[in-house]
Write a structure and sequence with these properties.
The protein is mostly beta strands and 1194 residues long. It contains 7 helices and 108 strands. The strands form 28 sheets. An 8-stranded mixed sheet has the order 79-80-93-82-89-90-91-94, with helices on one face. The radius of gyration is 66 Å and the shape is flat. 34% of the residues are buried.
Length: 1194
């Protein structure tokens, strides 16, 4: 242990020695130098007391401990290991360097003193957009004044840079200045106004009396500007405050100016002395109408006063103008007032008016007129009046004022009253009743000259000349169209209303009625300007003349004379030039029932050389004849076409377009060859092949069309075919046509019907097309229909857009129509046809008939494929066809359901049949013919079988629809179908038969009860007595020789008699008059003897039996075993035609499973396969009932 301790001590000593050597070696190694020093900041701003740290990045990094920190100025900052502290305001540089100072980096530090306050020189500021102003900030201490931050909120209203504020847009903003620390700040509220673009004052001049006040309103555009600043140019005259209120100080003038920005507006203010008194030069005035007087006004004070205003109490007596000049107008008294500053003075004016009743009189030659003076007031009338004429040779006047027209001319009549006052009027003797602007010159005749102005002058026709039929004209001379002056000339229709008259002989358009034809008159005038062709107008509405012919222009050129006329005939009015009617219209509505007079109308220019001569007036018949005989001016006459091709007998109406339209009444129509074409009132009729020209003319104006008539056509205009049929369509050529010409054929739809070069069509599918045949450029057409029906009136077959049949045929209400089914086959004696009737309603109180018909005979055919009931044969089946129809109506189906054209009661109305025809249920109607037997089907059930009418037995027939629909447009037909050949036989033999019965009408027969639904019948009317022991019933449905007949029989009495069942040949008369068994018609007959209510045995009647002789006509066949006899049994009769024509009949009588008796017989005679039979039942004293009768063909 001690040894080990020693060893450890030695080892430790050795290690210590080794470490000493190593350290010694390190002390003697070379030091590593710093190559780069980088500070994180080179500038720094601090406030006194702030501290900050500078970080030095050294390379190599492990020498960072050796950097030395220094500061160049003592007392501003201190630095310790990069931590800087601000001591006092100033600037110092802090450096980090190596020991030798050769590698270093430095940071300049600015130390600021703390800001105590920041203050702006303005708290509010108002600017206009675009203006500038400067805010001054005061900082404590001032050494911090340069270190401020400026901002404004919100932005966009103003801009601020170093305290300089610029207004950008209208609004408000706050400008704020802050020291760098953000601790001290101040702000200014800035309002920016819009820049004014316009300033106006409410008044540009104001007159005020000393002491008055008035406020001016300044309107500045746009809104939102600074308020206007008001100033006065002379505040000793007028002052103004900031709101524009003016105060008048003393007499004088001053200018008030409102200024906003660089704009201003002014108002001139005149201040007057206040007037205290006014006097006028007169207090009363006496005047005659027409006289004047100027008032003289005197005021106190006399200077610097307002101008007086004047007013009259009654301007109908006297007027006064702004200068105080009084004019006497009419008789009476009024007051004139002068006013200044609410001070007034008055003058009373008394006026006497003297005048002629009219200022202008116009007289016809030799006419007299009493002139009358009027005085106002009437009390002023003077008795001493003197009359003088200025032209006594034309117009004389006596001492009482009566004038007489002695010769054409004009005179002024003067009336002097008491030598104080004169009144004048003008009297003209003229063919016109003139007013101002017209002068009549006289020599050998007369000439009327016009002067500038619009003038309307009635023709001087004398009293009572107004009417509704007249003609008037005058000659216009010296007209010049090309002197650059607009002119108007014409005539006018005037109403003889007093307010439109100078006197009873003439009238004029006056006052507001110058352009109101309805109120005053109706003008026929022509206006021409510089462009004759575009500016020639006619009538008061300035409507264009409508026809400006070369001759009309020539008439109006270079001073040529023209005759201008107007006419009235009732309410039609006319304008005429040189005797030609150039305009016709209706007189104004206001004059339609008013007698009128013609008058001349003129509009003249100052140097107009026109004159009027040769005035003409006509009335009554002479005027009407003048209108009727006058030519009309036609602008154009046109026909719709210049060439026309018609087929023989075709008609075409030509429409003539006439401008003006009123001239159409004078149209004359002509044909150059009436053997080819005739024309009447524009209706052309083609007579025969050839060519002719048809002319429409009015006077010398005409229009022509060349008409070519061709005479060829299709043999029929309408054809109807079944699908897959072919037929040649023949063309027929008439007189004058070249026969044998080659025609080109075309179908409007080849997919429905095609046609070849020979005119042979092929019907492909249901639809309708137009076939066109063209010969030498002329075409004729026909219609070809491929349809389930050959239609006539009342039935419409609808087609889709592609021409296909919609399978629904709409029935036209109220038409009774029969339409052949388009089978495409020849008529025959073996066919079946059906259709579905939709929407029938039998309980609406309206009679209807529906069904089908067998039709035959060429006289009842459209073509060989179709026929209809025509002419008087509509109800004659023997001559025309045989109907199978059902008639329903008036709401009681059971009583009114009828069958066939004889109107026979249907006889049986099964529930299903009534239901089928109720509530618009669909019902299927069918008919069949097999030889001379015909069948009616309802919903595939045979409801009637009979013989065809005698007249049709040897005639091939076709099926046709029969319909009569009244007041019900909802009925349609669909699913038309047709069978022929063996399919018909199969259809008949396989059909269920609805059985019908008829009673024998012989008086010896007792009644039989037949169930309403035909399900059974009973001979309950018979008994065992000798006097009443027989009854018979015939089952009406016929059947062929191969058939199975079954029925149930129940016996209801115990009499001794027999049940008769006879299968006999049908001969078509219903068997209602036959006893049978012995008439030679029996095929197989049975008497089933009954006694004590049970069947006892059978007698068999052979075929062709003619009596009741035992072992000759009838044979006893025995009876059932006693134990099998019963009164309730089932009968089955099986008929089979053998190859040799004989018929085997097997009668089987059974009761349940028990066969009571079987009788098998074969006929003696042969029977045809097409023979038809019925069952006849007979009762001899036996009350028995038959039910569940069925007949099924084999």
């Amino acid at each position: 242990m001690q040894k080990n301790i020693k060893t450890i001590c030695v080892i430790c000593f050795v290690l210590l020695m080794c470490m000493s050597f190593v350290l010694a070696a390190c002390d003697t190694a070379t030091e590593v130098e710093i190559t780069s020093i980088k500070l994180d900041k080179n500038t720094l701003s601090l406030k006194v007391g702030d501290e900050a740290t500078l970080t030095a990045t050294v390379e190599p990094a492990e020498q960072a401990k050796d950097i030395v920190w220094t500061v160049n100025k003592e007392g501003i900052v201190t630095v310790d290991g990069g931590k800087v502290k601000a001591i006092a305001a100033g600037t110092a540089v802090v450096s980090a360097q190596n020991k030798s100072g050769t590698v270093y980096d430095s940071c300049t530090i600015v130390v600021e003193a703390k800001v105590n306050s920041v203050t702006l020189d303005k708290k509010t500021l108002e600017l206009t957009v675009g203006e500038e102003d400067t805010l001054v900030a005061t900082v404590d201490p001032t050494t911090s004044a340069s270190n401020l931050v400026w901002k404004c909120e919100p932005q966009g209203v103003v801009k601020v840079v170093g305290g300089k504020v610029t207004a950008l847009t209208a609004g408000t903003a706050t400008v704020t200045v802050t020291d760098l620390s953000g601790e001290k700040s101040d702000s200014c509220a800035v309002t920016v106004y819009e820049t004014a673009t316009e300033i106006t004052l409410g008044k540009q001049s104001v007159g005020l009396t000393v002491g008055d006040e008035e406020t001016l309103v300044a309107t500045i555009v746009p809104q939102g500007t600074k308020a206007a600043v008001f100033t006065s140019s002379d505040e000793t005259v007028a002052t103004v405050d900031k709101n524009g209120k003016i105060v008048a100080v003393k007499a004088g003038t001053a200018t008030i100016t409102a200024t906003v920005g660089k704009l201003s507006a002014s108002c001139e203010v005149t201040v007057y002395n206040k007037v205290t008194a006014i006097t006028l030069d007169v207090e009363t005035l006496a005047m005659y109408s027409g006289e004047t007087h100027a008032l003289v006004v005197t005021t106190t004070p006399a200077e610097a006063i307002r101008k007086a205003t004047f007013a009259t109490l009654d301007q109908n007596v006297a007027t006064v103008d702004a200068n105080g000049v009084i004019t006497a107008v009419g008789g009476g008294t009024t007051t004139i007032t002068a006013t200044i500053d609410d001070v007034t003075a008055n003058v009373t004016v008394n006026v006497i008016r003297v005048a002629f009743e009219q200022q202008n009189y116009s007289l016809a030659l030799n006419a007299e007129q009493q002139l009358a003076l009027t005085f106002d007031p009437a009390s002023a009338t003077e008795a001493n009046v003197n009359y003088v004429s200025s032209a006594a040779d034309a117009v004389s006047v006596d001492g009482e004022g009566k004038v007489k027209a002695l010769a054409y001319g004009q005179a002024t009549i003067t009336a002097s009253v008491e030598g104080k006052f004169s009144a004048t009027c003008t009297v003209m003797v003229s063919p016109l009743a003139t007013n101002n602007g017209v002068t009549v010159e006289y020599g050998d005749g007369y000439v009327i000259k016009t002067s500038a102005g619009v003038n309307v002058n009635a023709l001087n026709l004398g009293a009572n000349a107004a009417s509704k039929v007249y003609y008037a004209e005058y000659t216009l001379n010296g007209m010049n169209l090309f002197d650059n002056q607009a002119k108007t000339f014409g005539l006018v229709h005037f109403a003889t209303n007093d307010n439109l008259m100078f006197d009873v002989f003439h009238m004029f358009l006056g006052g507001g009625n110058n352009n109101n034809a309805a109120a005053a008159g109706y003008w026929h005038r022509m206006n021409n300007k510089l462009d004759l062709e575009n500016d020639l107008l006619v009538n008061a509405a300035n409507q264009e003349l409508g026809a400006v012919q070369t001759w009309l222009i020539d008439m109006l050129k270079n001073g040529k004379s023209i005759t201008m006329g107007i006419a009235r005939n009732g309410n039609d009015v006319y304008t005429l030039l040189n005797g030609v009617i150039v305009w016709k219209t209706q007189i104004a509505a206001g004059l339609a029932d008013v007698d009128t007079l013609p008058a001349i109308f003129m509009n003249s220019t100052p140097d107009d050389t026109r004159t009027i001569t040769d005035i003409v007036y006509l009335n009554g018949d002479a005027a009407a004849k003048k209108i009727a005989d006058s030519e009309m001016l036609i602008k154009s006459l046109q026909l719709g076409e210049t060439q026309l091709t018609l087929t023989k007998d075709e008609q075409k109406t030509l429409t003539a377009t006439v401008d003006p339209t009123y001239a159409a009444s004078k149209l004359v129509w002509e044909s150059s060859n009436t053997e080819v074409v005739t024309v009447e009132n524009g209706v052309i009729k083609a007579i025969k092949a050839g060519s002719a020209t048809v002319t429409a003319k009015i006077g010398n104006t005409k229009a022509e069309v060349v008409v070519t008539v061709v005479d060829f056509r299709f043999e029929q205009q309408n054809y109807s075919f079944a699908p897959n049929s072919t037929e040649k369509l023949n063309l027929v050529f008439g007189e004058g046509s070249d026969e044998g010409q080659t025609a080109a054929y075309r179908s409007s739809n080849d997919s429905i019907v095609s046609i070849d070069a020979d005119g042979i069509i092929t019907a492909k599918t249901y639809g309708r097309v137009t076939i066109t045949a063209t010969v030498k450029g002329v075409s004729v057409e026909c219609t070809v229909t491929v349809s389930p029906l050959v239609t006539s009136n009342g039935v419409n077959v609808e087609y889709d857009e592609d021409g296909s049949y919609k399978n629904t045929i709409a029935i036209t209400s109220g038409d009774e129509t029969v339409n052949a089914i388009n089978t495409g086959l020849q008529a025959s004696k073996l066919y079946y046809a059906e259709y579905t009737l939709n929407g029938l309603y039998i309980n609406d109180g309206q009679y209807k008939a529906f069904g089908m018909a067998h039709l035959g005979g060429d006289t009842f055919m459209f073509d060989k494929y179709s026929m209809y009931l025509g002419g008087g044969n509509n109800n004659n089946a023997a001559a025309a066809g045989y109907w199978h129809r059902m008639a329903v109506g008036y709401g009681v189906a059971d009583e009114n359901l009828m069958l066939n054209h004889f109107g026979d009661v249907f006889g049986v109305s099964k529930d299903w049949l009534v239901q089928a025809a109720t509530n618009r249920s669909a019902i299927k109607i069918g008919i069949a013919r097999s030889g001379n037997y015909i069948y009616t089907f309802v919903n595939d059930v045979i409801v009637l079988q009979t013989n065809i009418a005698d007249a049709l037995k040897e005639v091939n027939t076709m099926p046709a629809l029969y319909l009569q629909a009244i007041g019900d447009n909802s009925i349609t037909i669909s699913d038309v179908s047709f069978l022929d050949g063996e399919a018909v036989t199969n259809k008949i033999n396989g059909a269920t038969r609805l059985l019908h019965y008829s009673r024998v009408a012989d008086n010896n027969y007792k009644p039989v009860t037949i169930a309403a639904d035909s399900s059974s019948f009973r001979f309950n009317g018979v008994d065992g007595s000798d006097s009443a022991w027989r009854a018979s019933v015939t089952q009406e449905v016929v059947f062929g020789v191969n058939a199975t007949i079954e029925m149930d029989v129940a016996v209801h009495n115990s009499a001794n008699g027999h049940i008769g069942i006879n299968i006999a040949q049908n001969y078509g008369e219903g068997w209602t008059d036959k006893n049978n068994f012995s008439d030679g018609l029996t095929l197989a007959g049975y008497w089933m003897w009954t006694n004590d209510g049970k069947q006892q045995g059978v007698d068999y009647f052979k075929d062709g039996a003619t009596g009741w002789n035992d072992n000759v006509d009838k044979f006893w066949c025995g009876g059932p075993a006693e134990e099998n006899k019963s009164g309730n049994f089932h009968i089955k009769i099986d008929l089979t035609r053998n190859e040799d024509g004989t018929v085997k009949s097997v009668l089987t009588i059974s009761n349940g499973e028990t066969i009571m008796q079987v009788v098998e017989k074969t006929s003696d005679n042969t029977h045809g396969a097409d023979e038809m039979y019925r069952i006849h039942f007979l009762s001899h004293a036996i009350d028995f009932e038959v039910s569940n009768l069925t007949v099924v063909g084999k």
